[in-house]
Amino acid sequence: MSDVTTFMTGDHRRCDELFATLEAAVGEDDWERAVADLEAFLDSMTHHFTLEEEQLFPEFERLTGMAMGPTRIMRTEHQQMRGLFEELRAAVAARDGDEVLGVAETLNVLMQQHNLKEEEILYPMTDQALGADADTFARGLGATG
């Protein structure tokens, strides 16, 4: 089974692992690795947001008629995270470990709260709305990755 909840939760874990490697590189003062790890993390998050904003959210809204509900909140939180991504990029470029770890802490809290809402509310609602088509839709998300 590869429903939306399973697929997208797995993608969250992949992004989380990349974030952890970035934090480890900064903690070790390995700035060359930190730059590469940051870009890998940001690429992964950008891809994840694109899947949601261009495919998952519109399908959820089409199926449920809820355009002002959970997807609006998720889009707002994506924008907040994008702002923190830029702060993180600037802190890594400046090789400011304290700033990186401070921004990373704020970002991590936001990401974990966001992921919990998606994994426990939005994704299951999407799977329910998709019904028998949930696996096919999730496979389609995977095919774009």
Overview in brief:
By secondary structure, the protein is mainly α. The protein is built from five helices and no strands.
CATH H-level superfamily: nmb1532 protein domain like
Shape, please? elongated
Low-confidence parts, pLDDT < 50 over ≥5 residues? none
- What is the count of β-strands? 0
Largest beta-sheet details: none
- Tell me the distance between the termini: 18 Å
What count of structural domains? Answer: 1
Fraction of residues in helices?
A: over 70%
CATH class: Mainly Alpha
Structural class: mainly alpha
The gyration radius over C-alpha positions equals: 16 Å
Q: How many helix segments? A: 5
Name the CATH architecture.
Answer: Up-down Bundle
Estimated share of beta-strand residues: under 5%
- The CATH topology is given as Four Helix Bundle (Hemerythrin (Met), subunit A)
Give the H and E element order.
HHHHH
- In terms of quaternary structure, the protein is single chain
What is the average of the pLDDT values? Answer: 95
Structural summary, described in words:
87% of the residues lie in helices and 0% in strands. The chain is mostly helical. The protein has one domain: nmb1532 protein domain like (Four Helix Bundle (Hemerythrin (Met), subunit A)), CATH 1.20.120. The longest helix is centred in the first third of the chain and has 34 residues, at 31-64. The radius of gyration is 16 Å and the shape is elongated. The mean pLDDT is 95.
